[in-house]
Amino acid sequence: MTSIRWCAVAVALGSAAVGWGQAQLWGELKAGKYAVGFRALYQMDVARSYDADYPATGSTPVKKARPIFLAIWYPAAAPHNTSMLYRDYFRAVSMDSPVPEFAQRLRKFTRDMACQYILGKEFEKLTDEERVAWDGLLATPVFATLNVPAASGRFPVVIHHAGLGGTFDDNSVACEYLASHGYVVLSSAYQAADSSMLKIDGDLATSLEDLAFVLRYAATLPFADVSRVAAMGHGYGAQAALAWRARPGSPLDAAVLLDSTVEYRPLDDFASLKASLERNRNSTVPVAVLADRRRNPHWESFDPYLQFAARYEVAVDGMEHNDFVSQGATGKGAEVRRKYEAICEVILRFLNGYLKGDAEALKSLRDAGSPGLLQLASKPARPAPPTSAQVAKMYVSEGAENLHALAALVKGSDADLVVGAAALLFEGGSTREGASLLMWAAPILPDSADLQRALGNGLLAMGDKAGSRKAFEKALVLLPSDGTLDAGQKAETRKAVEEGLKALLK
User: Fold this and answer.
1) Which of these three, 328, 350, 379, is where a domain ends?
2) Which of the listed residues 320, 348, 379 is the one where a domain comes to its end?
3) Is residue 88, in this structure, part of any structural domain at all?
4) CA-CA-CA-CA torsion for 10, 12, 17, 19, nearest 10 degrees?
5) CB 267 within 8 A of CB 274
6) Secondary structure letter of residue 381 according to DSSP
7) 233 and 349 within one domain
8) Between the chain's N and C termini, which has fewer beta carbons within 10 Å?
9) DSSP assignment letter at 85
10) Is 431 exposed, middle or buried (0-12, 13-18, 19+ CB in 10 A)?
């Protein structure tokens, strides 16, 4: 396998036009109207601790602010004659770093994982022949230029999250390609919370905080329009994008899932992700889901969580997991490369449709059908469920005989819808109506610990201590098995219930 990859890399580099990065690494992809700039920098997240200079085994770690590495591809003001070389992506990791020890570790990790993706080995294990191919790849021009001025205007934002074992640059071709078509693309290292290793470890809480931090930084860029935001992820990174999309108040306008692996296994195998999705089944954020047809993706796994969103299911025939990113496809033959390029083209049309309002792009996706390199099916969104404010209004204004329609809506939604509606009634001074809504909804959503928690608080505010205690105690019984709450949310609910029980003693 390694020799095949080496030959593919050597042939690709040998046949490419010298000095033109698009021809060498992009294949037949067509650049947009913009040149591409690239920047890399570090920010420090003082809200979280991290031992950036991880000491030798046995030493006492010293907790410092979490370093956030940021890589940014953006539309550039004008073409330049000094394109970066591929090796410059690795160099960028340690350039002007405020955390030099961490940066050196991250640079080595980034290089080793690129070797693993492209040649199937870590750098130290390469043969002499493979070193020649690797050196040739490092000397290959890419489409981006370092630190050039941005084009005028403000552009939609795409935040990329790599998969387990992935790196910030593992899909650099797609990042460059999107930037050339008028997007600001940001990526990061998403390293584990435990500073003993740099691999992305699948902890959604860490990823979600990093993603939010990256978006906050994007808001400081004068050329980034954070009112139009998409997330794009590969493997576990796709799962993180899906979980981010499911957060109440999510900033996302679209999500791209590149071979998330959820399509091939029972969703119960992804307990943390499932809990995140259960937290908000009502998201209307559109999704493009891409997977390998030969591994028999079960698209229906997403049905309960994407029913109110437009969905595009893209099946690619005969793609291995890492072929969905540019590093994985680089060491493969022309057929895989062309399929990867077709994936990039689908992503661009999807983002153009939902971040730029390009109706023709969406029409081309809906009309694509199954010819060519990809099989594409689109599923329209069901009508969106009501908001909490609408539920509150419906409950107060409708007579008891007319609540059967509202009951059907509540039954098909998560408890947040009702809890939020009751909170609005409480805040507006309608305490009795808010508690009544929760009592009415409790039999419809009998497994929700958070609904019982809210009911306990409502009854306590009304002076019904016996009813309040009963609701709080039921919340504690339901809490361990409530699949709509992740570990952090369960801890928050338990704390709120315990505080309510203490208040009953006063």
Assistant:
1) 379
2) 379
3) no
4) -70
5) yes
6) P
7) yes
8) C
9) B
10) middle
At residue 438, what are phi and psi to the nearest 5 degrees?
A: -65, -40
Domain count, the chain: 2
Confidence at residue 372, expressed as pLDDT on a 0 to 100 scale: 64
Which domain range does residue 448 map to? 388-504
- Note whether residue 10 is domain-resident: no
Q: What is the DSSP letter of 313?
A: E
Write down the pLDDT at residue 45: 94
Which two tokens mark 392? 């509150």
- Would you state the pLDDT for residue 22? 54
Same domain, 287 and 309: yes
For residues 71 and 44, state if they share a domain: yes
- Please report how the helices 172-180 and 334-355 are oriented relative to each other, as an axis angle in degrees rounded to 10: 40
Residues in the chain: 506
CATH number at residue 398: 1.25.40.10
* Residue 83 pLDDT: 79
Asked if 260 and 353 sit in the same domain, the reply is yes
User: Can you say whether residue 177 is alpha, beta or left, with left for phi > 0 and alpha for psi between -120 and 50 degrees?
Assistant: alpha
Same domain, 412 and 447: yes
Distance CA 199, CA 241 (A): 18
Q: Are residues 282 and 400 in the same domain?
A: no
Both 202 and 277 in a single domain? yes
Question: In b/e form, how buried is each residue of 290-306, taking b as 16+ CB within 10 angstroms?
Answer: bbbeebebeeebbeebb
SS in 3 state form for 5-70? Answer: HHHHHHHHHHHCCCCCHHHHHCCCCCCCCCEEEEEEEEEEEEEEEECCCCCCCCCCCCCEEEEEEE
Q: Are residues 283 and 244 in the same domain?
A: yes
Partners of residue 232 on adjacent β-strands? 160, 256
Confidence at residue 1, expressed as pLDDT on a 0 to 100 scale = 44
Question: DSSP labels for 139-154?
Answer: T-B-SEEETPPBPSS-
CB 328 within 8 A of CB 235: no
Residues of the chain with pLDDT under 50: 1-4, 6-8, 10-21, 370-371
